[in-house]
Structures are given as structure tokens and as C-alpha cells.
Design goal:
Layout: H1 10-17, H2 24-65, H3 74-84, E1 91-92, H4 107-114, E2 123-124
Parallel strand pairs: 1-2
Length: 135
Amino acid sequence: MQTFNSNVDSSSVSATTDEPRKPLDVITGEDLGLQTVRNGVSYRRRQLGEEKAVIIQSNTACRSLSSPIWRLPTEILSEIFLYCLPEDEHLVYASRQAPMLLTRICRRWREVAVGFPRLWCRLKVVFWYGGWRGG
């Protein structure tokens, strides 16, 4: 029989082997706590999945409702704007008529209308000042 000498203190070895074990009810309680956390995470994951599905469906619905006129090239939209102008020789500024009305529909229409000089070349702007007297 061989014996080995060790430089480990025998009191520390006995302290580690003699420590009391956790009671089964404490371990079971910890397991229940972990399971509660897992259930909460799982529930929240399902919620987020459902919310994501709603957002995707909403975005898809918005895209499908958009009219083809919103996808027209700028050149064609500009030509359509010309047909919106009143047939008078000189256009009088009116916020409820083209070309001014076209600038109030949406950002893209405003950019197209403002950037299209043919819409504005016939516009007649009349300035009136009540106190002004001519010659």
C-alpha cells in the first residue's frame, strides 16, 4: 500500500466535504423561480412576434393601397399638371386652382410643380395697395 503526502491542509478538505447540503425545497424553489423567468421570456417573445406581424401587415396594406399615380415618373406627372391649368390666357393667383393647388397635395407634387417652369410662366400676380394712386 502506497501513501502519498500532500501539502493540502486536512482541515480545509474536511470543511469542503462536511458542508451542509441545500435542502431539496430550496433547490425546488430556485428551479420554480427559473421556470417563471423562462415562462415570462417565452410569453414576451410571443408578444413581440405578434406585434411584428401586425407591423408588417400594416406596411404591406399601406403599399398596396397606394394609387399608381404616386408611382408616375416626374415627366409624365408634369405633363398631367399642364392639363390641370385653367384655360385663361393669364392665370390669376388662386390658392384653390392649379398651379397653386398642386403644391398643396403632397411633398412630391410640390417639388414637381415648383420645379416645372411651364406651370408658372402664365401666372399673373396682381398687387393691389389701397392707398396707391396712379399718375
